[in-house]
Predict the 3D structure of the following.
Amino acid sequence: MGSDRAGNDRGGILRAFADRLFPPVFPPAGDGGGGAARPHGLVPPLLVVLTFVSGLVDAVSYLGLDHVFVANMTGNVALLGFALAGDRELSGAASILALAAFLLGAWAAGRLRRSGAGGGKGLFGPLVAVQAVLVAGAFAVSVTGGGQLLLVGLLALGMGLQNAVVHRLSVPDLTTTVVTRTLTGLAVDSWGPASVRRVVSVVALLCGALCGGLLTLNHGSRWALLAALVLLAWVAALGLRGAGSGPEPGPEPAGT
């Protein structure tokens, strides 16, 4: 009974966060409908957690490996250009591997979608679980002192899976990796619910990078990977239990 109450409390926190990111819109009075539905269910808060994870793994790959990004492919393409231009501190091979592994992960997730294995919402939990397994593999490699390129490949493959399922979900302003357009929208558009989502997205990525950087620089990359693994396992568990499976009914309007 205590565990059920704890689960309900966690669900209440996620619902409150989801309603802050996407405020429910109630039908006009007299339509006979109930409370408004949450169009994205509990997915938005989970995407914020994945954004934090993106910052963690990029801190590991950039600070602890070969100065390469495994989540932010825009930056990775630029780093590849710098490496090809002759910057000896950058690894062109690591950048190419990260790009190839990222594309492979995205392609594999896309194949699952096209083969009728379920839509983006149905794949959310399973693909995040696979990503958690890949990060667990990267953690094991870091503990045993394995090669850096293997770490880059595993992390980039997992981020490709993550980005593919997020792309299919099409939740506005929560891409989990790219903040350039998010910042542009924040500067250009009038303040509103979308602005809240954009601020949260940017802050989540910043905090993930900060925490990942502190852990990597002071304690080694394995601790940042362990933090990413725990968060991914939690998100995957919620997704497999249906938190990412579809819209949920919102709260009843006041006074009903």
About this structure: The beta strands are 37-38, 248-249.
